Amino acid sequence: MDYVLLVDILGVVAFSISGVLSSLKKRMDAFGILIIAFVTSVGGGTLRDLLIGTPVAWLRNMTYVYVIIGTTILAVIFRKKLSYFRRSLFLFDTIGIGLYTVLGIEKGLAADLSPIVCIALGTTTACFGGVIRDILCNDIPVIFRKEIYATACILGGITYFVLLQFGFVESIIFISSGIVVILVRSLAVYFNLQLPSIYKNEEINPES
Amino acid sequence: MDYVLLVDILGVVAFSISGVLSSLKKRMDAFGILIIAFVTSVGGGTLRDLLIGTPVAWLRNMTYVYVIIGTTILAVIFRKKLSYFRRSLFLFDTIGIGLYTVLGIEKGLAADLSPIVCIALGTTTACFGGVIRDILCNDIPVIFRKEIYATACILGGITYFVLLQFGFVESIIFISSGIVVILVRSLAVYFNLQLPSIYKNEEINPES
Amino acid sequence: MDYVLLVDILGVVAFSISGVLSSLKKRMDAFGILIIAFVTSVGGGTLRDLLIGTPVAWLRNMTYVYVIIGTTILAVIFRKKLSYFRRSLFLFDTIGIGLYTVLGIEKGLAADLSPIVCIALGTTTACFGGVIRDILCNDIPVIFRKEIYATACILGGITYFVLLQFGFVESIIFISSGIVVILVRSLAVYFNLQLPSIYKNEEINPES
């Protein structure tokens, strides 16, 4: 339990800082920075909760609110030092999406939804905070364009249901699926892998 | 019943393909393309369900999920051939918005909402998938700028309530309103009609 | 009671006009202008209601719908004269965000949420209509970049809970907090105040 909470908070810290960095690049003011940190951290889970129809979690859990506000203030003050923590931040972020994928899947299962939809909700939980961040910053969401990010979440989700099928106990499924997400994402970044391009030298010219 | 489902699926196919085309233009990767196809297809209905407060339909109906995934894969593979189907795609899309407008209106009526709000919900169902697609692709939503598209849905919605007023049976109202949407949209494209411009050579210079 | 409704309507008028002005700058057609006016007016309250899980108010209150449609039509027709009303529009807008902040806080309190979350919901009610307007117009939300706007709402929210702590009666708290929002916002514009910049001549170059 407490491990889950600790991992969750590390994820929130990483997501908040990624929001702060995006908003600094757009030269937002203090309020804008805080909002972007906030939606990056809780946007994915909020969208999931709205879709399923369950209460939005962060409204009733002040831990998130305090962690986001505290992280944002520290990240702005020490923004020039953040590059020293790049490796830790990547680690937190990666562990965060691993956890969020599995938490999202379990919320979907609790609402009695089918595996594909649960995997979609897990991926949404992990990735859509970043999507909303990019929309508010007026960029095309980065995860739509490059890197094995959502793909790692989807593979972790498939692992979850394969292990469930074989009758493993819940805690093993939980941890193994999370680790798959973390491993795939880490290996992809380490070896600089991308999804196979579907464009290869072609000139796209679709009729609209 | 089965006719409605068939028409619905044709609409989903057309919407998915329009999402694939938009995301190819932005050179998204496989994951991005799938997400854009998905939100284009189900975004309007999802927003309507969230506003009304009814459960989001596609979470519990795997037909949509399978059709969207299948269409997206086929559309990416045969993307260079899609221009041959332009006429069919336009037809599917037009029939789709006709159906979605009426389905949205009936969801609003079931929630006991007033005619104007029902028409707004019908139009939302038909048009907002495309709006969310354009936002995620970082474009100004195309239906805000040109073409008789939403206007066709609004006229179909007005038809619905006029016929309801005159006491027609439900199936006649359903089909007639849908046909009005399809006719207005088709004629507008055929004759290249637009809403009367409110700009006519003027230099807009509003104080902000 | 009637005063609240009157102030609310003045706010809706100001928000609708701000939506009309934004969409005219993007040369949208009549449908686009109406949609932007609509989301600017009701977007903040809608997001708040979705987050809390209460029914979306404007779906069942035709007053908003009529006021928005009427204001939009008049604003488009007299768009060249709007600069004469700049001062009144600023006043309406400022009074509007004062009211919306307090209404949002009270919705949060009714849902038994903590003060910080209530202040966030009040600020959301007042400010997120404009955020959604700017996203749909493909701009970075203006309130993330400049001006004391959201900050005025946050200060009004803090006032609310300080007065609540001291046991003042509800109507006094309501009016005083609203007036704090209005005063802070007016003084900020009058003296051209901004949040203290966190950039001061520095070159932002964060690692991503």
TrEMBL record, chains A, B, C:
- From the UniProt record, list the coiled-coil ranges: none
Subcellular location per UniProt equals: Cell membrane
- According to its UniProt record, where is this protein mainly located? membrane
> Does the record bear Transferase in its keywords?
no
- Name the InterPro entries on file: Gly_transporter (IPR005115)
Which keywords fit this entry according to its UniProt record? Cell membrane, Membrane, Transmembrane, Transmembrane helix
List each copy of the Glycine transporter domain by range: 6-79, 91-163
Segments spanning the bilayer are 6-24, 31-51, 57-77, 89-107, 113-136, 148-166, 172-193
Q: How does it sit in the membrane?
A: Multi-pass membrane protein
The similarity comment for this entry is: Belongs to the UPF0126 family.
Q: Can you say what this protein is called? A: Membrane protein YeiH
Natural source organism: Mesonia maritima
Q: What lineage, starting at the top, does this entry show?
A: Bacteria, Pseudomonadati, Bacteroidota, Flavobacteriia, Flavobacteriales
